[in-house]
Amino acid sequence: MTSERDIDAEIKAVNPAELTEVERLRLEAAKDDLFCAIVSDSGEPEPKSGGRRRWRPGFGTRRRGLALGAAMCAAGAAALLLLAIGLGSAGAPSKALGAPLERLAKVSPHVILDAPGWRAEAGFEVGGESGSIHYHQAAGPTWARQLGGRLKIAAVESAQLDWRVAATASPARPNSKAVAIGTSIALDSSARIYSRAIPGSPDRTFYAVWVQSGRELQFSSTTPSRESFERRLSALRTVDEAAWLATLPEGRLVRSGGWFTSKGWGEPATSAIAVKRCDAPLPDSVRAGAPRSALRIYAQQCGHTQLPASGPSSREQHHASNGHPGMIAVQQCGMSPEQSLQMTNAIHDRLEAEGKCSVDWVSATPAEERSADSSR
Amino acid sequence: MLFHRDVIASRARAETRFVEVYDDHWSAILAYALRRTERPEDAADLVAETFLVAWRRRADVPPGPEARIWLYAVARRVLANHRRGERRRARLSERLRADLATATPCELATRPEPAALKALSRLDEKHREVLLLAGWEELEPAEIASVLGLSSATVRGRLHRARRRFRMELEGGAEDARSAAALGAEKA
Question: Are the CB atoms for A178 and B41 separated by under 8 Å?
């Protein structure tokens, strides 16, 4: 044996784990399980390699831009998890919901967004003390261009009212504690207005904050300019308790850990999600290869509640401890983007048909994205 | 608050890309791990740790086939850390540890050690690694250079020396085996 080729062949012949053999190992479930465990990791930065030079492969890779980095950092805090969608029960909410709603009314400043096309989409009681109301307006501009047009977003605009004690949690002060406040905040010119950029978007999210007698009211919405935000701001009204209750969305009053229906406070979010999994009409192609445990659901962070930067290791714990409501999407671990999209759409369709949720966006496949681009 | 949608969408996109990396290179990294660890549980830990690093540094993972080379480099470092006794990711890889222990065919774990393996084991680490990356992972010298953080010229030189030493070890081992057999025959 003299040639290099012979030597390589000799080494290759004693390979203890040929790739073809490894690919035949039946490890799909373990593979999915590991994937879910990994992506549930909080994503803390990988420590540097302690002075060892060039351990990284020399691809000359560069860090992605600041926007994505900032978004990913914020994502760690905004966290996974969603659902706890308000159940669509018929009837007047003020009568059906009883004591919890009355308690919410007591701590609310009774402010509403009173403008054509706007309606309250969901009410949230956070920690049983502070709260918020989310408003949507149909037929607004689409947001499909955001983040490089990777999103397919329905034509919906949104705004949000939050109330709490002054100097407590807000996007600018995320770590402070939210507690209850009472009513009566005058919507005068004392509001402090600030804004923050949205990565990949020309628009900004504006905030107006009133602080009066130790109480705080915040109105936030995303608009192209401060002028358009101020027009929206001018539609805020203070009303009496009965009128405020009348504007609340039917059956969509939600609180941490569950939701409220005419039958009482709902099950923990974990159970809710489990129910959704079972109810979901999974497409055949997805059902064939997808363990239910791999279903992944994202949450929109609720108002001023900040999720822990490094969350619990288990997604179920996430659900149980941070079951704040939101809307947003479903993605599946270990599946192709197309299958995830298919599954997401199927679940959305089902839930929307039952009046259980309002879907704003889903991830778009590249083909859909191209189609949307060509139609614009 | 639309800001949060952007944040979540951004995370979703990163995960989608990671799904592709994970699916495309799972088998290669698992094979790499099985070839270099004695116990399936250790291989499971190595796979878990490697992909965890990839997840945390997903912005750094190069696109396309180069991701595999990048992952090999991570796996190699993770393996070195494991050998130095650093903490393991048993929690993450619990299911894989169990399944791999049962799914790994006996022949993968209990094959008799041929002379070539014995010869490889007698090489020093740096020569053995280039030979294994070339023979088992079937990497080109430039790719090996990326995994090891060396220049291609250095890798070519090292490969040449490694093959020569491997041949010497193999022939020396064969000679030893013949001597032992002859000694045994004489005694008989």
Answer: no
